[in-house]
Each structure stands twice: as C-alpha cells, then as structure tokens.
Amino acid sequence: MSIPTIETERLILRAPEADDFPVYRDFFADADASRFYGGPMDPSAAWRVLAADLGHWALRGYGRWAVVERASGRMIGGCGLWWAEGWPRSELTWWIVPAARRMGYAVEASRAAIAFGYRTLGWDVVETHMNDANVAARQLAEKLGGSVMTRARFPDGLERDVYALPDR
C-alpha cells in the first residue's frame, strides 16, 4: 500500500505514522475540540482512530492524511476522503488541532484532498456532510464553494445536508 504525499503552499499531507499518536491522543481527549469527531476519547480509542486512518487506505485505496505544517514540521490534524462501512456515501473529512485553527489550514488541506478525489480517483463528485450543529464545518464547506445537493438520514439517526464540493 502506497499513500501519496501531497504538498501545498504551507502544508504537507502525508501518511499517518506512529509518531503522530500524541497529536491524535491530545486532540481526541479534548472534549471541545473533538466533539464532532467522536470525542472525547481515551488514548486507546484515539490509537484506533490512527490505525483506522491507515487501514482505510489499505481497504479503500484512499483515506485521511496527516496534515503537517511545512514551516515547523509539526502535525496539526488530519484531512482526506473517507467512506465508513455501512454509511451511504463518502465524505471529505478533516480535523485541525485548536492551536492551528483559523489560519486557513483546513481550507488548504481540503482543496488538496478534493483535487485528489477528482483528478486521481476520477470521482464524479466529492462531497461532505456534517452534524447540523457543526457551524464551523458548514462554513468551511461553503468557503470551499460547496452547495447543498441533498439532505439525507445517516446510520447514526441524524439528518444532514450533503454538500457537493467543486474542484478548484
């Protein structure tokens, strides 16, 4: 399995690795930071998220990268394309540590992941969906040029707007 590395102006999207675990552990332990990502979690659950990020690449041929700030070399989050078993559709997904938020990193990483979906995977549409209460995620989808294509019920019982995201 080969996970491609993508470089943007300020970021490197690379394969997650064991040395990234402290970032996963701390992010997913933070109840506020991780509330829309299944948190808070204890360290063993955060380890399983890291393992799932790697495993998704092996099972689906795409997944979530570790997002690394080029200038510092520090991992600041995750971003990529995801399709959980049993869920009706794929999604662009991301998480950014609180100290690196509001710097445009989620937009930059997301644009790279969207381009990968269209140009490398040949997808007809890259989409995302989020909990209605996740205002920041909705604002990011809109900043990416996303438009609501449907509203759907998901296996967790929630209804969500599904955004189609353009390749820019």
Key words describing this protein structure:
globular, 168 residues, five-stranded antiparallel β-sheet, Aminopeptidase, 26% strand, alpha+beta, three-stranded antiparallel β-sheet
Description:
It is a single chain. This protein is an alpha+beta fold. It has one domain (6-165): Aminopeptidase (3-Layer(aba) Sandwich), CATH 3.40.630.30. The protein is built from five helices and eight strands. It has helices spanning 21-29, 31-34, 43-60, 105-120, 135-143; strands at residues 6-7, 11-14, 64-69, 75-82, 91-96, 126-129, 147-153, 159-165. A hairpin with a 3-residue loop joins strand 1 (6-7) and strand 2 (11-14). The protein starts with 5 loop residues before the first strand and ends with a strand.
Provide a brief overview of the structure:
With 168 residues, the protein is α+β, with helices and mostly antiparallel strands. The chain has helices at 21-29, 31-34, 43-60, 105-120, 135-143; strands at 6-7, 11-14, 64-69, 75-82, 91-96, 126-129, 147-153, 159-165. It has one domain: Aminopeptidase, CATH 3.40.630.30.
Q: Uncertain runs with pLDDT below 50, 5 residues or more?
A: none
The CATH superfamily bears the name: Gcn5-related N-acetyltransferase (GNAT)
**Name of the CATH architecture:** 3-Layer(aba) Sandwich
CATH class: Alpha Beta
Residue fraction in strands: 25-35%
Number of helices: 5
Question: Which structural class best describes the helix and strand composition?
Answer: alpha+beta
What's the helix-strand series? EEHHHEEEHEHEE
Distance between the termini: 28 Å
Form type: globular
Q: Provide the helix percentage.
A: 25-40%
Count the strands?
A: 8
* Biggest sheet record: 5 strands, antiparallel
The CATH topology assignment is: Aminopeptidase
pLDDT average, as an integer?
96
